[in-house]
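Methods, example record. To illustrate the input and output format used throughout this study, we show the complete record for Zinc/iron permease. The sequence lines were provided to the predictor; the line carrying structure tokens was produced by it.
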Amino acid sequence: MILIGSLASLLAGLATGIGAILVFFIPEPSDKFLDASLGFAAGVMLAASSFSLIVPAIEIGGIWKTVIGIITGTVFLFYAERLIPHAHYVAGVKGPPTKLSKIWLFILAITIHNFPEGMAVGVGYGGGDIKAGTSLAIGIGLQNMPEGLAVAFPLLREGSTRSKAFLIALLTGLVEPFGGFLGISVVSLGKFLLPYGLAFAAGAMLLVITEEIIPETHSRGNDREASIGVILGFIIMMVFDNIFS
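The corresponding predicted structure is encoded as:
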């Protein structure tokens, strides 16, 4: 199961490259399209956090273990974002002062996002439920596609070639197997850790959604398009979760 969970998180991470490959075939998309795409990714993550992580955590461990897990995951990612310098195209540079180039700061930002996503996939398989883990892997892979697009094109604006922008976007997705391996390994140590692990991944993802992705999508005046993307992504992930449950 550890191998399956790690491979599933790897495939979900590689989906970032599917979105990024569009840099070779289409002109630069509009800000409306990018914001709607990122909104879609946020909607998928929100539904995955709710139906695939939080609800099972409550069913397995009860409400208070779930609360502890969510808070722990949120605090973990909050400090990771404070301690690791990173940048978003609209929000700018965050974290401690650094001399890293803006391209590297973009890479670090998406890496911070992808780690809890990979962990979510791994933890999803940690309970031994292949259907639940597969639902999460499909959902995370689905939302990684617009993220890849949203990473690659800003890199073009920063002066990267199309090949380099694609490669960087693809590589940022490869952090997910590490998160997946860690997640499934930890919860495999004991079933009592499963609700904490599920809720931990959910808390980290909720912070990414509310502090990073949604504010980013609403910062250029494309609120309606971004909101439609969120709702569409939420619905699609909700359907996936019910199909595989």
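Annotations derived from this record:
The CA atoms of residues 37 and 146 lie 5 Å apart.
The beta strands are 86-88, 92-94.
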